[in-house]
Amino acid sequence: MGTIRLETQVVGDIATILLKGSIDEDADFKELSELEAKVYEFDFENVDMLNSCGIRGWISFVEKIPDSKKVIYKNCPQIVIEQISMVFGFIKEGALIESFYAPYFCSSCDEEKKIRLHTKDIINMKAPKMLCEKCSNEMEFDDIETQYFSFLNR
Amino acid sequence: MKNNTIISNLLGDENNKRLSSYIASPVLVKNDYVEDADIILLDTTYSGKDFEQIMHKSGPRVLLISHHEFEKVLFDYLCKYHLNHVIGQESLVLDREFQMHLNYKLTNTWPTIPSMLYPDSEIAEITIRDSKLIDESLDCLFNRVIIGPFFDSPIGYLRVLGNELLMNAFFSSQYNNKSRSEKIVLDCDIELSLGVDENFLVLSVKDPFGTLSRNQLIKSLERGFREKTPVHKSGGAGLGLYMTLLSTNQIIINVKPNHYTEIICVIDRSKRIKTFKGRTTSFNLYEGV
Question: CA-CA distances (angstroms) from residue B275 to A110, A150, B236, B272?
Fold first, then answer.
């Protein structure tokens, strides 16, 4: 998809920033430092790759967001959740991860599915029960819960 | 294989039952520690009091099978001893991995993608000289190989692996302190290969510099696992090898100093991402190949 593109929409006090592409060594978040909003909502749905230099750039950017601003991470794909677990600082301190995608596996259909979850649905680090849309059987959470949900303890 | 090759077999009962059949003649096998043995087979259940002595005296000749998480393997073994071969106990293809690395050690050879895969496996190769063509080159490579049934999606992990290893290759030695946004055009090739068979999906990045030492490798991993934060200076973020380790099931490093460095990453075939994530990463370093 190429290096990250940012689509920003400001409604009232809320800036919603849709990130598309790769967070890599060429990712530039400077344009976001001019935003005047009380809430920053980062939508990661269309991020397809992160490398270590891109993560560094992202951390440098979020560290500069004043603590008085509310920061929300939305629709985090699996690769973003994995990076959050691997690298400290990817989530700004005090930020909220509102929603993310998690892998489930349906044994009947022999298929993996990515299911969008809300953080408030995770109780005691346990993945919520999910039914397969195709066959209605219960699916198995297809990752290690303590690892995948470790970001909740950050 | 030289005459009178000796293997010191100190594997626990479980691994011994499973793996000893792969130790074929004309090797001489001793079921205790032999200091002069060509290879020492050990696993992390070993309870002998001479463990430290074995590791200090014979580290590079030890092939260790570990049930520990890689972070523990790094700090308890790789940082403390000159150990170069660790195989994750939970590997679904433990037999194949074990046999492969034992054979390389016995014949004094080293892994290459063709030697790791079954004959007639699909292998694609590409060369690259321009650091701004990394992503395009990876896409080109991925489009040339049919990977077959896997969890969703190993290509995502291969993209991270390929990107980190290629960036390291381009920015090793003379360009190490340059900003990673700078375009580097080399006057030599970096070789990128992708192969697949019924067990493995294998990616290789090979540079013609050979500047990666064991010491640098272990230091970089140690910093990554300990700090889990990027280095905020010019140059790399200091997390590339750490992220690579966490995104692969097996890592093989072949280094011939001042000639080449090849890093091979293997993703074991599975339809379950839990299986991919649930095993200890195997680590195999071949120095001076």
Answer: 14, 19, 31, 5
User: CA A44, CA B289: separation in Å to the nearest integer?
Assistant: 43
Q: Strand pairing partners for A82? A: none
Contacts of B79 (CB under 8 A, 6+ apart): B218, B222
CA dihedral B156, B161, B166, B168 (to 10 degrees): 140
pLDDT of residue B82: 96
Query: Is the Cβ pair B151, A53 closer than 8 Å?
Result: no
**Count: domains in chain B:** 2
Beta carbons of A103 and B151 less than 8 Å apart = yes
| B178: DSSP letter | S
| Regions of chain B where pLDDT drops below 50 | none
The verdict on B258 and B123 lying in the same domain is yes
Percent of chain A at pLDDT above 90? 88
pLDDT tens string B118-168? 999 999 999 999 999 999 999 999 999 999 999 988 999 999 999 999 999
Which residue type does A40 have?
A: Y
Residues B134 and B246 in one domain: yes
- Rounded to the nearest angstrom, the minimum Cα separation between A36 and chain B is 27
Q: Which residues of B are less than 8 Å from A114 in CB distance? A: 152
Of B107, B132, B149, the residue at which a domain comes to its end is B107
Please write the tens of the pLDDT for every residue from A72-86.
999 999 999 998 889
Which pair of structure tokens corresponds to residue A35? 């935003």
Which residues from A are below 8 Å from B179, CB to CB? Answer: 25
Structure-token match 């701004």, residue found: B132
Rounded Cα–Cα distance for residues A69 and A37 (Å): 8
Domain housing B250: 117-287
The pTM of this model reads 0.95
Dihedral sign computed on CA atoms, order B45, B51, B55, B57: negative
Do A53 and B232 count as a contact with CB atoms less than 8 A apart? no
Q: How many domains does chain A have?
A: 1
- H or E segment at B214? helix B214-227
E strands present in chain B: 6-9, 28-30, 39-43, 62-66, 85-88, 122-130, 185-196, 200-207, 250-256, 260-268, 282-287
- Taking an 8 Å cut-off on Cβ atoms, the answer to whether A55 and B232 are in contact is no
Residues B87 and B175 in one domain: no
